[in-house]
Amino acid sequence: MHIKQQIDELEGQAYSELAAAGTFAQLEEWRIRYLGKKSRLTEILRGLAALSIEERKEAGAVSNALKLKLEAAIKQKEESRREIELLSSASRDAIDISLPGRPFVRGRLHPVAQAMNEISDIFTAMGFQVMDGPEVEWDYYNFDMLNMPKEHPARAATDTFWLDAPPNDKGWRMLLRTHTSPMQVRTMEHTKPPIRIVVPGIVHRYEATDATHLSMFSQVEGLAVDEGISMADLKGTLHEFARRFFGPDRRVRFRCDFFPYVEPGAEMAVECAVCRGDGCRLCGGNGWIEVLGSGMVHPSVLEGVGIDSKKYSGFAFGMGIERIPLLKYGVEDIRLFYGSDLRFLRQF
C-alpha cells in the first residue's frame, strides 16, 4: 500500500478513536498510540528510506502535517475535557442560597475561668488590685513567711508536691505552690500600706479527688492591710462578695477556725444550692458548704515583712474557685469541670 494511503487511513482512524476517548486516561493512551516514540505514525516514517527522493519529500510533508494536526486535536480535546470537569465540579459544589446558613460554633471561656474573672471584677469594684505570681514557689514564701512551722503537716510529702531540685544558697526548697498566699508576702515585702490585692491562680495539693476536692485547682487569695482594719471589715467585705456573686437570697455563715497566718481565723460557708440547707450528698448532709478561710493577718506575718503590727492591721482570705460555680449552679461533682465533656461545659 502506498505510504500516503497508509497515512490517510491512519488519520481517519486516529480522529475516530479520539472522538471516542472520554477520560484523561483514554486520551493519554491515544497520545502514546499515535504520537509516542513507538506510535504507528513513527513506524510509517521509518519506511520513507525505501522511497525515492521526491516521494520521500511528499510523504514526509504529509506525515509532519498529520503529526501537527493530531497534536492540535488532542490539545483541544484535553482543554474541552478540563472545561467539562470544571463545570461538573462547580455544579456539585454549588451553594443553594435558598438553604438556611450553617451556624458557627462560638468559643467560650471555661466555667472556672468565667468564675475567676467574675470574682476578680467584684473585688476590683471594691478597690482591690489583681496580682499574679509564680506557680513554682519557694517553701520560704509558701510556708515560712506565713507562720507555718517546720513540723506543720502541710509540709509533708503526702500533702505537697516537692520538686526534685537542690535547695538554693539560703536553704530554700522548691515546690508547686499549695495556695496563692505567697504573693501576699511578696507584695508586702515591696509595697507599703495601704494594700488591697486579690491573687487568682492555679495551686496544687497532694490529695485524693472526690466530688468536692481536686489535686490541682484554682484559688483566689485576698489581702488588705491598712490602719484600723478590723474583723468587721473582713466580714463586711466577704458578705458583700457573697451577695454580689450568689445573690441576696443565699445565706452565709461565719464560724471560728484556725489558720497559722491569721489570728483570729474564720471560715465562711454558703447555703448549699442543691438542697437549700436541708442536707444532701454534695454538702455532706449539713446544708452548708465551706467556701473560704479567712482571718486577721497574724502580727508575726506583718513583722516578718517589715510592717509595724502596732500601727497596721489587715485581713486575708482564700477560696477555691471551682467550688464557687459549683455552689452557684448546684453542680454535684467538682470533677465535671475538668472532664472535657462539652455537653456539660456548653451550659455555662
General description of the model:
The chain is an alpha+beta fold and 348 residues long. 40% of the residues lie in helices and 18% in strands. It contains 11 helices and 9 strands. The strands form 2 sheets. Strands 1-4-5-9-8-7-6 form a 7-stranded mixed beta sheet, sandwiched between helices. A two-stranded antiparallel sheet has the order 2-3. Helix 1 packs parallel to helix 4 (53-92) and helix 2 packs antiparallel against helix 4 (53-92). The N and C termini lie far apart (89 Å). The mean pLDDT is 84.
Q: How large is the radius of gyration?
A: 41 Å
Number of helices: 11
Strand order of the largest sheet: 1-4-5-9-8-7-6
> Could you spell the SSE succession in H and E letters?
HHHHHEEHEHEEHEEEHEHH
Strand tally, please? 9
The helix content is 25-40%
Q: Which regions are unreliable across 5 or more consecutive residues at pLDDT < 50?
A: none
| Largest sheet data | 7 strands, mixed
The structural class is alpha+beta
Mean pLDDT: 84
* Shape call: elongated
What amount of the residues lies in strands? 15-25%
> How far is the first residue's CA from the last residue's CA?
89 Å
